[in-house]
Amino acid sequence: MVVIDAEDGGRWKSLQLAGREWLWQGPGLLSGPRTNHTAFTDAGGLDECFPTVRGTPDHGGLWNQPWDFEVTFGDATLTRTFASDTDSVTADYHLQAPPGYRFTWAAHALLDCAVGASVQAPGGTPCRLYPEAAPYLPTPWPADAPWLDTTWPTPLDLNTYGPSDGTAVGAILVDCPTVSVLDRGALLQLELSCPGEPVSTALWRNQAGFPDEAPYRSLGVEPMLGRVFDLAEAGPEDAAVVPPSGKLAWRLTVSARPV
Q: What percent of the chain stands above pLDDT 90?
Protein backbone atom coordinates (compact mmCIF):
# COMPACT_ATOMS: atom_id res chain seq x y z
CA MET A 1 0.00 0.00 0.00
CA VAL A 2 1.19 3.50 -0.82
CA VAL A 3 0.00 6.70 0.88
CA ILE A 4 0.32 10.00 -0.99
CA ASP A 5 0.48 13.54 0.40
CA ALA A 6 -1.26 15.41 -2.41
CA GLU A 7 -0.61 18.80 -0.80
CA ASP A 8 3.12 18.20 -0.47
CA GLY A 9 4.20 17.67 -4.06
CA GLY A 10 2.37 14.37 -4.44
CA ARG A 11 5.05 12.87 -2.20
CA TRP A 12 4.84 9.19 -1.31
CA LYS A 13 4.86 9.42 2.48
CA SER A 14 4.33 5.73 3.23
CA LEU A 15 5.05 2.48 1.38
CA GLN A 16 4.01 -0.64 3.27
CA LEU A 17 4.89 -3.94 1.63
CA ALA A 18 5.45 -7.44 3.01
CA GLY A 19 4.38 -6.33 6.47
CA ARG A 20 6.70 -3.34 6.98
CA GLU A 21 7.22 0.34 6.21
CA TRP A 22 9.95 1.01 3.61
CA LEU A 23 10.08 4.80 3.40
CA TRP A 24 12.18 6.91 5.74
CA GLN A 25 10.11 9.56 7.48
CA GLY A 26 12.65 12.36 7.08
CA PRO A 27 14.85 14.49 9.33
CA GLY A 28 11.98 16.61 10.67
CA LEU A 29 13.19 19.86 9.09
CA LEU A 30 9.69 21.30 8.66
CA SER A 31 6.03 20.60 9.26
CA GLY A 32 3.31 20.99 6.67
CA PRO A 33 3.59 21.08 2.87
CA ARG A 34 6.46 22.73 1.00
CA THR A 35 4.11 24.55 -1.38
CA ASN A 36 5.78 27.59 -2.99
CA HIS A 37 9.13 26.95 -1.27
CA THR A 38 12.01 27.93 -3.54
CA ALA A 39 14.80 25.89 -1.91
CA PHE A 40 14.35 22.12 -1.73
CA THR A 41 13.80 20.79 1.77
CA ASP A 42 14.15 17.09 2.51
CA ALA A 43 10.88 15.70 3.85
CA GLY A 44 11.66 11.99 3.52
CA GLY A 45 9.44 9.57 1.66
CA LEU A 46 9.57 9.60 -2.15
CA ASP A 47 9.60 12.82 -4.18
CA GLU A 48 8.94 12.90 -7.92
CA CYS A 49 11.88 14.76 -9.51
CA PHE A 50 11.02 16.25 -12.93
CA PRO A 51 12.25 17.64 -15.37
CA THR A 52 15.65 17.36 -13.68
CA VAL A 53 17.00 15.80 -10.51
CA ARG A 54 19.88 18.12 -9.65
CA GLY A 55 20.42 21.50 -11.26
CA THR A 56 17.70 24.09 -11.82
CA PRO A 57 15.19 23.71 -10.32
CA ASP A 58 16.87 21.53 -7.68
CA HIS A 59 14.99 18.21 -7.35
CA GLY A 60 12.74 19.40 -10.17
CA GLY A 61 9.61 21.51 -10.18
CA LEU A 62 6.96 19.22 -8.69
CA TRP A 63 7.86 18.88 -4.99
CA ASN A 64 6.72 22.43 -4.14
CA GLN A 65 3.25 22.38 -5.69
CA PRO A 66 0.17 20.39 -4.70
CA TRP A 67 -0.78 17.52 -6.99
CA ASP A 68 -2.23 14.06 -6.93
CA PHE A 69 -3.43 12.51 -10.19
CA GLU A 70 -2.04 15.25 -12.46
CA VAL A 71 0.53 18.04 -12.29
CA THR A 72 1.87 20.61 -14.76
CA PHE A 73 5.36 22.04 -15.11
CA GLY A 74 5.78 24.53 -17.93
CA ASP A 75 4.34 22.97 -21.08
CA ALA A 76 4.50 19.41 -19.72
CA THR A 77 1.68 17.58 -17.92
CA LEU A 78 2.35 14.43 -15.91
CA THR A 79 -0.29 12.01 -14.66
CA ARG A 80 0.21 9.10 -12.27
CA THR A 81 -2.00 6.16 -11.27
CA PHE A 82 -1.42 3.34 -8.77
CA ALA A 83 -2.32 -0.32 -8.39
CA SER A 84 -1.26 -2.33 -5.35
CA ASP A 85 -1.57 -5.55 -3.41
CA THR A 86 0.06 -6.90 -0.25
CA ASP A 87 3.53 -7.27 -1.70
CA SER A 88 3.75 -4.83 -4.64
CA VAL A 89 2.85 -1.37 -5.89
CA THR A 90 2.75 -0.33 -9.55
CA ALA A 91 2.84 3.32 -10.56
CA ASP A 92 1.97 4.16 -14.18
CA TYR A 93 3.12 7.54 -15.50
CA HIS A 94 1.91 9.36 -18.60
CA LEU A 95 3.64 12.50 -19.82
CA GLN A 96 2.20 14.89 -22.39
CA ALA A 97 4.70 17.44 -23.70
CA PRO A 98 5.94 18.91 -27.00
CA PRO A 99 7.70 16.41 -29.29
CA GLY A 100 11.44 16.46 -28.61
CA TYR A 101 11.00 17.62 -24.99
CA ARG A 102 14.07 16.39 -23.05
CA PHE A 103 14.02 15.61 -19.33
CA THR A 104 15.30 13.48 -16.53
CA TRP A 105 12.94 12.01 -13.93
CA ALA A 106 13.58 10.12 -10.71
CA ALA A 107 11.46 8.45 -8.07
CA HIS A 108 13.56 9.95 -5.27
CA ALA A 109 12.91 7.22 -2.70
CA LEU A 110 14.55 7.58 0.71
CA LEU A 111 14.42 4.23 2.46
CA ASP A 112 14.08 3.25 6.11
CA CYS A 113 17.12 0.97 6.34
CA ALA A 114 19.42 -0.08 9.14
CA VAL A 115 23.21 -0.01 9.18
CA GLY A 116 24.37 -2.97 7.10
CA ALA A 117 21.60 -2.86 4.48
CA SER A 118 22.95 -3.81 1.05
CA VAL A 119 22.17 -2.52 -2.43
CA GLN A 120 22.17 -5.24 -5.09
CA ALA A 121 22.61 -4.65 -8.82
CA PRO A 122 23.97 -6.75 -11.70
CA GLY A 123 27.75 -7.08 -11.60
CA GLY A 124 29.55 -4.99 -14.19
CA THR A 125 26.82 -2.33 -14.40
CA PRO A 126 28.47 1.00 -15.35
CA CYS A 127 28.45 3.30 -12.32
CA ARG A 128 28.86 7.07 -12.51
CA LEU A 129 30.10 8.40 -9.19
CA TYR A 130 29.37 12.00 -8.23
CA PRO A 131 31.88 13.04 -5.55
CA GLU A 132 30.68 16.51 -4.65
CA ALA A 133 32.55 19.31 -6.46
CA ALA A 134 34.28 16.84 -8.79
CA PRO A 135 33.37 15.28 -12.16
CA TYR A 136 31.83 11.86 -12.07
CA LEU A 137 34.20 8.92 -12.12
CA PRO A 138 33.08 6.06 -14.41
CA THR A 139 33.56 2.68 -12.75
CA PRO A 140 31.85 -0.72 -12.93
CA TRP A 141 29.51 -1.83 -10.15
CA PRO A 142 30.27 -2.58 -7.37
CA ALA A 143 31.68 0.90 -6.95
CA ASP A 144 35.00 0.15 -5.29
CA ALA A 145 37.01 2.93 -6.88
CA PRO A 146 38.81 5.10 -4.31
CA TRP A 147 37.27 8.39 -3.34
CA LEU A 148 38.81 11.29 -5.23
CA ASP A 149 39.60 13.13 -2.00
CA THR A 150 42.77 11.54 -0.61
CA THR A 151 41.69 12.34 2.96
CA TRP A 152 39.20 9.47 2.71
CA PRO A 153 40.55 6.56 4.78
CA THR A 154 39.06 3.71 2.74
CA PRO A 155 37.83 3.03 -0.81
CA LEU A 156 34.23 3.91 -1.58
CA ASP A 157 31.88 0.95 -1.10
CA LEU A 158 28.40 1.85 -2.27
CA ASN A 159 27.04 -1.67 -1.86
CA THR A 160 26.57 -1.28 1.89
CA TYR A 161 24.74 1.36 3.92
CA GLY A 162 27.40 1.66 6.57
CA PRO A 163 27.81 3.37 9.92
CA SER A 164 28.03 7.15 10.22
CA ASP A 165 31.42 8.21 8.85
CA GLY A 166 30.79 11.79 7.68
CA THR A 167 30.41 10.91 4.00
CA ALA A 168 27.71 11.58 1.43
CA VAL A 169 27.85 10.59 -2.23
CA GLY A 170 25.58 10.28 -5.23
CA ALA A 171 25.91 7.76 -8.04
CA ILE A 172 24.03 6.52 -11.08
CA LEU A 173 23.88 2.88 -12.13
CA VAL A 174 23.70 3.48 -15.88
CA ASP A 175 21.16 1.54 -17.97
CA CYS A 176 20.16 -0.43 -14.86
CA PRO A 177 16.36 -0.82 -14.64
CA THR A 178 16.23 -3.13 -11.60
CA VAL A 179 17.86 -2.79 -8.18
CA SER A 180 17.16 -4.59 -4.91
CA VAL A 181 17.77 -3.63 -1.29
CA LEU A 182 18.29 -6.26 1.41
CA ASP A 183 17.46 -4.98 4.89
CA ARG A 184 16.61 -6.77 8.15
CA GLY A 185 15.41 -10.00 6.58
CA ALA A 186 13.42 -8.48 3.72
CA LEU A 187 14.17 -7.75 0.08
CA LEU A 188 12.79 -4.68 -1.70
CA GLN A 189 12.96 -4.62 -5.51
CA LEU A 190 12.47 -1.52 -7.66
CA GLU A 191 12.00 -1.98 -11.40
CA LEU A 192 11.45 0.72 -14.04
CA SER A 193 10.26 0.14 -17.61
CA CYS A 194 10.19 2.66 -20.45
CA PRO A 195 11.04 1.03 -23.81
CA GLY A 196 13.28 3.12 -26.04
CA GLU A 197 14.39 5.52 -23.30
CA PRO A 198 17.47 5.51 -21.02
CA VAL A 199 16.52 3.78 -17.76
CA SER A 200 18.94 3.89 -14.81
CA THR A 201 18.95 3.84 -11.01
CA ALA A 202 20.33 6.70 -8.93
CA LEU A 203 21.81 6.20 -5.48
CA TRP A 204 22.25 8.68 -2.63
CA ARG A 205 24.14 7.35 0.38
CA ASN A 206 24.37 9.86 3.21
CA GLN A 207 26.17 8.51 6.28
CA ALA A 208 25.98 11.73 8.33
CA GLY A 209 27.88 13.69 5.70
CA PHE A 210 25.12 16.09 4.60
CA PRO A 211 24.27 18.87 5.18
CA ASP A 212 27.40 20.42 6.64
CA GLU A 213 25.61 22.42 9.32
CA ALA A 214 23.44 19.59 10.69
CA PRO A 215 24.24 16.23 9.06
CA TYR A 216 21.85 13.30 9.23
CA ARG A 217 21.58 9.84 7.64
CA SER A 218 19.59 8.87 4.54
CA LEU A 219 19.68 6.20 1.84
CA GLY A 220 18.18 6.97 -1.56
CA VAL A 221 17.53 4.30 -4.18
CA GLU A 222 15.95 6.11 -7.11
CA PRO A 223 14.70 4.55 -10.36
CA MET A 224 15.21 7.17 -13.05
CA LEU A 225 14.84 8.10 -16.70
CA GLY A 226 18.18 9.40 -17.91
CA ARG A 227 21.85 8.79 -17.22
CA VAL A 228 22.82 12.01 -15.39
CA PHE A 229 21.37 13.95 -12.46
CA ASP A 230 21.35 17.39 -14.09
CA LEU A 231 19.47 17.83 -17.36
CA ALA A 232 21.82 20.69 -18.25
CA GLU A 233 24.74 18.20 -18.28
CA ALA A 234 22.96 15.56 -20.35
CA GLY A 235 24.63 14.38 -23.53
CA PRO A 236 22.64 13.32 -26.61
CA GLU A 237 21.78 9.90 -25.12
CA ASP A 238 21.61 10.91 -21.44
CA ALA A 239 18.03 12.24 -21.22
CA ALA A 240 14.57 10.92 -22.01
CA VAL A 241 12.92 12.47 -25.08
CA VAL A 242 9.20 12.83 -25.82
CA PRO A 243 8.43 11.16 -29.19
CA PRO A 244 6.58 12.79 -32.13
CA SER A 245 3.23 11.74 -30.63
CA GLY A 246 3.80 14.16 -27.75
CA LYS A 247 3.16 11.35 -25.25
CA LEU A 248 5.45 9.10 -23.24
CA ALA A 249 4.55 6.41 -20.68
CA TRP A 250 6.61 4.51 -18.12
CA ARG A 251 5.95 2.08 -15.27
CA LEU A 252 7.57 1.74 -11.85
CA THR A 253 7.01 -1.53 -9.98
CA VAL A 254 8.05 -1.86 -6.33
CA SER A 255 7.77 -5.23 -4.61
CA ALA A 256 9.00 -6.79 -1.36
CA ARG A 257 9.28 -10.20 0.24
CA PRO A 258 10.87 -11.75 3.31
CA VAL A 259 14.13 -13.65 2.79
A: 76
